[in-house]
Amino acid sequence: MYGYVSDLNFEIDVFGLAKKPKAPPQVFSKKEKQAFLAAREDILNGRGTPHDVYQGREYPRWAGANEHRVVVPGESDKYRKLELELEGKNGEVVKKLGYSKDHYTKIHDDWSKIGCPG
């Protein structure tokens, strides 16, 4: 029989079969949710001016995205929204929207996590 290793200090998991711990889910305050949802609506409605172009150092697949600041009252300047235009299957322009609450430690594109459908 085979088993999984729970403590690498005592056993070696040569096949990498042990489960890796999941990262804790990010928690959004009410202020953060409101700011990100308003920022998303601005992009979808053609409002808002990007302040920079994301270079993609941390996440290369987002390179070239328009970077917008998201102002969360009483918080530091670490919140960002990204707008990346891609070419669709039929040659049409498709917008991909992302966000970061920690200045690119992680970029998210699942807006349902902050209460926004699809």
Topology:
Layout: H1 30-44, E1 52-53, E2 66-69, E3 80-87, E4 93-100
Antiparallel strand pairs: 1-2, 2-3, 3-4
Oligomeric state of shown chains: single chain
The residue fraction in helices comes out at 10-25%
Approximate strand percentage: 15-25%
**What is the C-alpha radius of gyration, as a whole number of Å?**
19 Å
Number of domains: 1
Give the integer mean of the pLDDT values: 81
Report on this structure.
With 118 residues, the chain is an alpha+beta fold. Helix content is 13%, strand content 19%. It has one domain (30-114). Strand 3 (80-87) and strand 4 (93-100) form a beta hairpin.
Keywords for this entry:
single chain; 118 residues; 4-stranded antiparallel beta sheet; 4 strands; 13% helix
